[in-house]
Amino acid sequence: MSRVEDSACDACLRRAFLVGRLAPRIAGLLDRPGRRTSGLLALSESDLLAAVAGERAEQIALDLEHFAPDAERERLARARVLALCRHAAEYPGGLRDLDDPPAALFAAGRHEALELLCSEPAVAIVGTRDPSPYGTEVARSLGRGLGAAGVPVVSGLALGIDATAHRGCLEGGGAAFAVLACGPDVAYPRRHRRLHEHIRENGLVVSELPPGTPPFRWSFPARNRIMAALSRLTVVVEAADPSGSLITTDFARDLGRSVAAVPGRVTSKVARGTNGLLKDGAVPITSTEDVLDELFGVGARYPPAAAHSVREPEDPLLRHVLESAERMGSVASIAKAVGLSTAETRAALARLEGDGYLVRRSLDGWERALGPILADP
User: Fold this and answer.
1) Dihedral of CA 112/117/119/120: which sign?
2) What tens digit of pLDDT does each residue of 196-208 get?
3) How do residues 70-104 score in pLDDT, each as one tens digit?
4) I want to staple 184 with a disulfide (CB 3.0 to 4.6 A). Which of 160, 207, 323, 324 is the partner?
5) Rounded distance, CA 343 to CA 347, Å?
């Protein structure tokens, strides 16, 4: 791949600057939750100003006339952000399939990761911000297995499934790609600022909004179209109906991309969206291998066994408690099986749960987890 520095032309930088400047006014125009930009971002500069700027149109147009591309490039360099325009060879080709592709894609992190994103089919993993323990484990396992297999994993840094998929990918040694609804240098939500830093160190954070731009309600569904366009396959782990994740699948289908879903419990609210997708013909996903089979053909590429193996605690007694907890529901039955007191058994279960080897299924049961989860650095 050729050098990617200074690969955004003046016209595309100017257009991106305009979108960033109009972002608060777009928010005022599209004030209903979940509403799409509906072609707004495909308008010409003059039409966009007329549709959005209102009484500020003349002033913003004047500012646009005095836009200084070189000064903007200096600002980007200070922020350690790369700008790729749609005329650049390194611009991800999938974005060109959009009716309203970003004029410039702003990227923060390992710029060489762009080569992976352009050369390998990517997978978007999305889902609810409030997942069940089951959904969390599946998202983590998929992210980890795909990362280990060298497949780019795309998500939105949101709470729940998104962040878990990112962490799983990083655990597997892969390159995580976070698509933001704000500037690439803005960690949102704020509690994910360390995860944001970790992705910048090992992958890439991208956005169509310039550095420093805060998120807006409209920019979340707008960024979903970018996630769908960057990915050959969109996998929904858990999602209610309606939800932002289903907006991503709508974009994916509009682009002719594949949509997949993880089956969920029929009584679970966070599985209504995914089970509905499966009824509508989405590809069922139960493992990393299912995703890889969909991308490359059956058996064509599997991750190393360590990427999807279940980890065991080193302490033999804790391993015994873990094995018993999988089979038995009550603390008393586990205690009897392992030869411990009730108090000692509760302490062992709490340690296993805290270390990530067990997740509580209900008041009287547990499910095995993958092992210690990657914490924010």
Assistant:
1) positive
2) 999 999 999 999 9
3) 999 999 999 999 999 999 988 999 999 999 999 99
4) 207
5) 6
Do residues 337 and 326 lie in contact, with contact meaning Cβ atoms separated by under 8 Å? no
CB 366 within 8 A of CB 353: yes
**Cβ pair 122, 244 in contact under 8 A:** no
Instruction: Give just the sign of the alpha carbon dihedral 206, 67, 97, 213.
Output: positive
> How far is 377 from 368, CA to CA, in rounded Å?
25
Is 203:175 a contact under the CB 8 Å cutoff?
yes
- Residue 40's alpha-carbon distances to 28, 218, 222, 313, in angstroms, are 13, 11, 10, 54
Give the model confidence (pLDDT) of 29-79 as tens digits.
Answer: 765 544 456 688 999 999 999 988 888 899 999 999 999 999 999 999 999
- DSSP single-letter state for residue 339: T
What's the CA angle centered on 246, arms 24 and 114, to 5 degrees? 70
What residue has token string 């949509």? 259
Q: Could you tell me where the beta strands, DSSP code E, fall in the chain?
A: 82-85, 104-109, 123-126, 153-155, 176-179, 204-207, 233-236, 258-261, 283-284, 358-362, 365-368
What does the alpha-carbon distance between residue 321 and residue 189 come to, in Å, rounded to a whole number? 37
Instruction: Give the C-alpha separation, 331 to 292, whole Å.
Output: 39
The label of the residue with tokens 């995860």 reads 195
Kindly list the distances between the CA atom of residue 328 and the CA atoms of 207, 333, 342, in Å, as whole numbers in the listed order: 48, 6, 14
Partners of residue 207 on adjacent β-strands:
106
For helices 161-171 and 193-202, angle between their N-to-C axes, nearest 10 degrees = 40
Token pair 């323990």: residue: 133
Q: 279 exposed, middle or buried (CB, 10 Å; 0-12, 13-18, 19+)?
A: exposed
Provide the 3-class DSSP secondary structure of residue 125.
strand
| Residue 165 dihedral angles phi and psi, to the nearest 5° | -65, -40
d(CA 225, CA 180): 11
